[in-house]
Amino acid sequence: MFQSALRTSLSLHRSTVSSCLRSQTFRRFLSQESRTKIQAAVTEYPVVLFMKGNPEQPMCGFSRGVVKILSAFDIPPEKFKTYNVLEDLELRTGIKEFSEWPTIPQLYVNGEFVGGSDIALSMFQSGELESLLEQHGVIPKASES
Amino acid sequence: MASDTILASLGPVEIAMREKLVTLLQPTKLIITNESQLHRHHAAMRSQGGGNGETHFAVQVISDAFKGKNTVQRHRLIYSALSEEFSQGLHALSLNTKTSEEAQRYQAEK
Fold this sequence. Notes:
Chain A is of the alpha+beta class. Chain A has helices spanning about 1-25, 30-45, 60-70, 90-100, 115-125, 130-135; strands at about 45-50, 55, 55-60, 80-85, 105-110, 110-115.
């Protein structure tokens, strides 16, 4: 008697779990409050990087790569802000919906999404990243320094 | 179409990725490399028991579906095709996207 009761309760549990998993595949609605917070964050500083860990201790090779690339430009600290998504689960999922980009790191310059680590690297190699930073007054133009 | 993946031991994620990207992009070249083993010791993967062996991939694709699109748009195109995989354990993709013209130019410059 107890065995059959146990079997029933287990199968009920399984169907609840699987429907929870199914609902997670639908895109979660980013609350207006979160959207507003993120919008403010990406415009508060000229260069904003959402990463895993922080510049002193990156927690992911891709995040470390972008930090290294940016460090080549000597960006003044008052123009550069990083957010550690590992410390804030709401931010970690929110930024992916906000940017319509499923991975971290995410680089913003002047409130505009630039890309992840592949894009940052190729723009760095082509000189495009330097131009972008000069264009937005983040770093002085080469002829001025 | 040149299909460079070694057919032995292809997991379901890689198979699904290839199918979706071929349908979406009709590429002239599509190389998918499973790099999950390189990342299995990283903190995030350790907490998942090393991951399922299909967490990190490098994708190289040549397709004229990329014409007129900048890099972010190309990557977004690929990411949105693979949103299901991302919600089920795919963790990272390194993307190299070129049109056939860009690929030829790249070869010529080497």
